[in-house]
Amino acid sequence: MNHGGAASRVDNIRRSLVHLKMPRALEMLDATLRGIEQGKIDGIEAIDILLNEELSLRENRRIKAALRMARLPIIKTLDGYDFSFQPSLDRNRILALAGLDFINRAEVVHLLGPPGTGKSHIATALAVEAVKAGKSVYFIPLADLIASLTKAEREGTLREKIRFLCRSSLLVVDEIGYLPVTPGGGNLFFQLVNARYEKGAMILTSNRGFAEWGDVFGDPVVATALLDRLLHHAVVIQIEGSSYRMRQHADLLPEHARMAPSNNPPPLPKRRGRPPAKEKPDLHHG
After folding, report:
1. Could you tell me the pTM of the whole model?
2. Domain limits at 31?
């Protein structure tokens, strides 16, 4: 093939890459052709390089967009978590969760422990793994979730809001117990949990044990109904230890605050099926 014919074919390739919207392959074309001319790669390898570069670009774009839609406050990874600082935490158990089988089984993962022990870090890191695997994710603190549901109820769009929150394969509800739940908020959260029950996975983080959820939600009946569903198909991870954020200033803290007390949850209740409808508490009043 003469030089003019080769140049014409390269121009055709460039135009085709533009029409196919393959910017990364177009960017890498000249360097790849030089590799062929220098005998470093053959034609098949060149095609493989160009396609892999383009696929990598598209995958990175997909992940970036999905992370933005997930509303993660910050990107965290399991590689960035200091397991050595929390010896009570089973690293292998967390890595097993990163396999994401719990999402396929529509299970609920509870991350319990004192403030600063890395609950939100782990929840966020698992959410990032889910996004990378192509799962839809939505992350929201409980206070923001209750405010959103309350607004939807006031505007008559609660059903649509709950339907929207049920679309994600994984819903992460952060900071349960950090702020008081507004009156009626527990009922709204129950409606969401009930709608996702056995249909969509969740990760919940809390600094309060399950026995305290009656105080957290301001209603022991609502708390019991919530736990009935949230503990049925559940993985409970208890993190004990001091605050990771305060590790460099531990000597400035009072003695009782240097090591937070254990927040061990009670054993999972034995479930023998749901009670008849007439025995369920009325959880749909405002």
Report:
1. 0.80
2. 8-70
Cα 13 to Cα 27: distance, rounded to the nearest angstrom: 12
Q: Angle CA(286)–CA(217)–CA(137) in degrees, nearest 5?
A: 90
Model confidence at 67: pLDDT above 70: yes
List, for residues 214-226, the tens digit of each pLDDT value.
999 999 999 999 9
Question: String of b and e for 181-193 (b: at least 16 CB within 10 Å)?
Answer: beebbbbbbbbbb
Rounded distance, CA 63 to CA 67, Å? 6
Q: How many Å separate Cα 218 from the centre of its chain?
A: 27
Task: Please check whether residues 56 and 82 belong to one and the same domain.
Answer: no
**8 Å CB contact between 152 and 187:** no
Structure tokens at 111: 């991350």
Terminus-to-terminus CA distance in the chain, angstroms? Answer: 79
Give the Cα separation of 208 and 166 in Å (integer): 25
